[in-house]
# Entry
Amino acid sequence: MIFHSSFLMERRAFVKPNYLVFMKNVRKYLGLVSMSLVCASPLAAMVIQPFVGVTIVQQNVITVKGQVMDEKGEAIIGANVIVEGTAQGMITDMNGNFSFQCPVGAILKVSYIGYLSQTIKVSGNAGTLKVILKEDAETLDEVVVVGYGMVKKSDLTGSVASVNVDEMAKRNPVNIGQALQGAAAGVQVMRNGGDPSGETTIRIRGIGTVQGSADPLYVIDGIISSASMVNPADIASIEVLKDASATAIYGSRAANGVVMITTKQGDKNKSRINFTANLSVQSVNNTIDVADADLFTWGVRQSKAADGKSLTNLAWGEQYAGQLQTIDWQKEMTRTALSRNYRLSASGGSSTSNYMASIGYTKNDGTIINSWYERITARANAVSKIRDFLTVNTNLAYVRTGSHGGGNMRPYALTVPTMDHLDENGNLMNVPIKYPDGSYGVPLQEMNGDVPRGSDNLVARAYDNDSKNFTDRVQIDFGLTVDILKGLTFKTTNSYNVTNKSSWDYSPRNERTITSDGLDTFSMEMSRSSDWNSENYFNYIFDTKGHHINAMVGQSFNQSVDGFELKGSAKDFPADNYRDIASTLNSTTKNVEGALKVKTTSLSYFGRLIYSYKDKYLFTGTIRRDGSSAFGRTNRWGTFPSASVAWRLNEESFIKNLNIFSNLKFRIGWGKTGSSYGDGSKSIAQISTSKMYYYWWNGVNYTEQMGAAKDKEIDTNLHWETNEQTNLGIDMGFMDNALNVTLDYFIRNSYDLLLDRNMRPSTGFTSIYTNAGKIQNKGFEFAVNYRKTFGDWFVNVGVNGSALRNEVKEVGDPIFATEASKGYEWDNHSIIKNGYAIGSFYGYRVKGIFQNQAEIDALNNASSTGKYQSGSTQPGDYYYWDKDGNGYINADDKDIIGNGFPKLTYGISINANYRKWDFMLYGYGAYGQDILSYSAMSLSSIHNSTGEFQNCLQEYISNAWTPENHSTKYARMTVSDNNKNTRVSDAWIKKGDFFRLQNIQVGYTFDWGMRIYGSIENLFTISSYNKYGDPEIGTGRLNLVGYDSGRYPYQRTYSVGLSLQF
# Structure
């Protein structure tokens, strides 16, 4: 009867629409209620008697005592402790204790809702038992957060991925991106570099826009917010809504998926203080293997000889081989760095209220010299039931971040590895990084010579610079939940947030280089923006005779209240470290500008109906209508519907009788979402004025007249981008859900894309911003999880992955992008074109390397121009493909040569517990990934983009084509590069497949609630791309997918940490 009552109460606790109460906490409350029921009965004063027919021999009976706790050391109230095979036993008291008599050799079964059961054999000298129950994540995950509410996981009809927050917390992520990396199928997370801020690029089911944002929407505690607004250590749950049937409730903001985040709350009638600390040591674990001074200067001499030129820096001559001092710029520009991460929280509550307050501090010194990142977070959440029908909740969050400096390993690797040169008397000078008197060494200054003009000491330059960025964010939420009638509630949440940003950059006078004007420079920038959100909705839940109805209807309002941006810069100040733009000694260098941001407003109406019959046949339908001031008056509104159904076959008798599936559910969903980008200025005609001049017949005399004209053509029918998505899914559970498998297939069509289209010159305008594009993403996702207890062992293994194909269906004329230095002929290296993936690689195709002059002469003789590539093409140069077959190479021979979308991305996690020990292993990777590598090109060339020398790979110098070594991999070394071997081509497309073992950790939990651990992050990365840098390529630019030009280096991190709970 006790178990039955608990089940009913759990059910009622779920259907009560109080969205701030988690099922985990609800289950804990069940123990209190169950214990109260038992204490009110005669059974409270005695041990439950065994079943009839069970005989207990008195002389073998002992008193067994113990305490039941969870993995955090908290007492579990109301846990069931029984002798297996009997009804003999009891439930634990307020402190988790139990004590009763039982036979020696009996098997005790300890169980509690939301936890994995445990069995213990009673020995004659059992003493006081300590029983630690592990959370049953499968049970706890029964309730997931979706837009404007919660639903049971078994009732989901859309594609929703839940992140294991406990496992995530162990990894100690800096931000949400790192928390999601490798944790959910269909969510691709790539780090933008190894800088201390840990910024990432997140894509959910591909890219469906050309000129907008592909970032997901973040909803924190029911309010649309910034991902930077929450410390990952404050997170209680994360759900990722992937398909349109799940995201359409957020309409025009949900085209790229939705990340639902719920922060931690306090427990009623239980106070606790938590403290966590993590101390890490970081070092760069992958440097680029470039040449030392002797090998580099040998390569210089070889290339000079091939070009028929002589040295200008005579210290690089053969007679000084072995005497030059090598400077490893990668080593000099990096360091072993410390990182600290602390969090202190207090939580608790009474029978009618709860609270949670936390403060966090992160400081990362950065592995590049003179760089750092710092963050302070504070959060306070409170819920109070002030009347039986009225609940008030308030949240306050503050985040401050600061950073200084940065860097890129590629330029460090390319810097000439010695500053040695001859003095005016012809003596070799070994130039160090820094002299004993504190002054810095400087390389030879040549305006037109071997040494790159303006060469400087990189260490000196790094310490000269003072560049800081600060961001302050504050968010205040206030909400009310009103229980109107049985099953009917009303909830309102209002939020205001403000963001202030400021930055400055100061460089002192620098007379070390001949290209510098020597002047000190200072620039600064500041901005402010704020938003107000209001969410209001009614929810009604009704159950009768197997029918379950959950209906919701609401309204949302958002407005960017105000905003401004100011920035200024100047040079040449009265004194060192003088930072007043108005005080510049040279007013021509002063530039100050500012603007008010355009205010935008949106208004929405939405509704949802969830229906299930006997927990077998499920339906969810949503509709949202959004209006935005970003569009013209005639097209401000858009409608975004969705529908999905599911069938739980495991509830059907013909499946149950198979005894194979513990869960089997088919899902199908369809829906529309949208997006609008910009501030609305592109839908408003803008007029500018200018002077017009009318000249007389002699061309000297004229009349001046002021005139006005439109700046650009406006599309008066400008409207929302639309995403239409269909999803097919199946959820399977085996062996009592110890093994769970989820499979999804989706097709996402994005159309009416907002982009600039070219116009006929006769219109007087070059382009028009309009709805004219279409992109398709389709793919397959899988997630497999196995969790099982074997005696003292608990094992949890998870694997997930996704395969995606992206194709541009319609964008009109091709759209190009360039992010490479001029001089290497990498213009328009990325392209958006019909029939190909967004941001595809665009360049020449290499057929091989010319091995002799006869091959070149044959092609030149067959060409109508007398030259196939260049009149200076030589053996050892690349042989390019003549795409159009006209007999010579020009820009018309460029072709689409690949794209940066991986064929498969995946994540792997292994968690194990043995008694008080825990172990974690976590990794992720990509397969079938191509990289257009500007890094590989520049590291395989001994000259830079302006024709001066730079360092390069040892492998290249040692294996480049020579008359004696007819290489088929590396072209010859040359400075002139008349054949343009460094131009963008498929020679620079490299395989980017990788697997990274991101975290391995071992921890131990003491009886009194403290856990200590040690971990190694980024233990290794398996990839053939490591020689050029890191294969994990993240970028926020949509048309540069898979493009690599180097970045802040990734680190290997050794950490120790502890967590305490009082």
